Amino acid sequence: MKAMILAAGLGKRMRPLTDHCPKPLLPVAGKPLIVHHLERLRNAGIEDVVINVSYRAEQVMTALGDGAAYQLRIHWSHEPAPLETGGGIQNALPLLGDAPFLLINGDVWCDYLPNESALSPNDVAHLVLVDNPAHHPAGDFALQHGRVSLASEQRLTFAGISLLRPGLVASEPPGAFALAPLLKQAMETNQVSGEHFSGHWVDVGTPERLTALEHHLVQISE
Question: Which residues form a coiled coil (predicted)?
């Protein structure tokens, strides 16, 4: 199975840290944030990783190269202008192929990855959901008996980690578009499964959360 890391965003919420450094390269616990993802993917047995880039793309590509330093093969999907989540995935489909793949938002930290067997043949997506953080108390989706829905009660937060089938975005008109509306459409036809991860997860969206993650990782390494 291949994996894709979404890393093409402008990092506006992380300013001023991202004024001169793209968000994937911001250091946390002694290494760039995106390297934590690469190491976890390698440890999970994944060999091919697609990374989409746009803002300060050359910096990211130069820093990570072809992936050999991480015992991986990195394939770059360059976007002259950010294509959002759905458009970015669609643009990378020639690199991803026809099989299901693991998708990770580049601006999260989590020490868990779902097993590829979690995506059943009749589903188009399998989502990892986490407890609602303080900055997102209402959550995103409901999880009942392994199925993800738009129910309004007992919601959890989408972790930004999922297994997807390429067909979810393949037929959309080319260009910039979000992934969330397509996931919601699939939920309405009961084509999305999910699981609840209760371990440590961080949406590294602000300098304050980056600092908090740094403190956490330093503590657990001592």
Answer: none
What stretches of 67-200 show up as alpha helix (H) in DSSP?
84-96, 167-170, 180-188
Percent of the chain scoring above 70 in pLDDT: 98
47 in Cβ contact with 101 (< 8 Å):
no
60, 86 Cβ separation under 8 angstroms: no
Q: Are 148 and 142 in contact (CB under 8 A)?
A: yes
What is the biggest distance separating any 2 CA atoms in the chain, rounded to whole angstroms?
A: 50
Domains defined for the chain, CATH in brackets:
3-221 (3.90.550.10)
Q: Say if strands 125-130 and 141-144 run parallel, antiparallel, or are unpaired.
A: unpaired
Measure the CA–CA gap between 41 and 194, rounded to whole angstroms.
Answer: 20
d(CA 67, CA 61): 10
Q: What is the pLDDT of residues 3-17, one digit of tens each?
A: 999 999 866 777 777
3-state secondary structure of 34: helix
Q: What is the pLDDT of residues 94-137, one digit of tens each?
A: 999 999 999 999 999 998 999 999 999 999 999 999 999 999 99
Dist CA 99 CA 215 (whole Å): 38
Helix orientation angle between 57-64 and 33-43, rounded to the nearest 10 degrees: 40
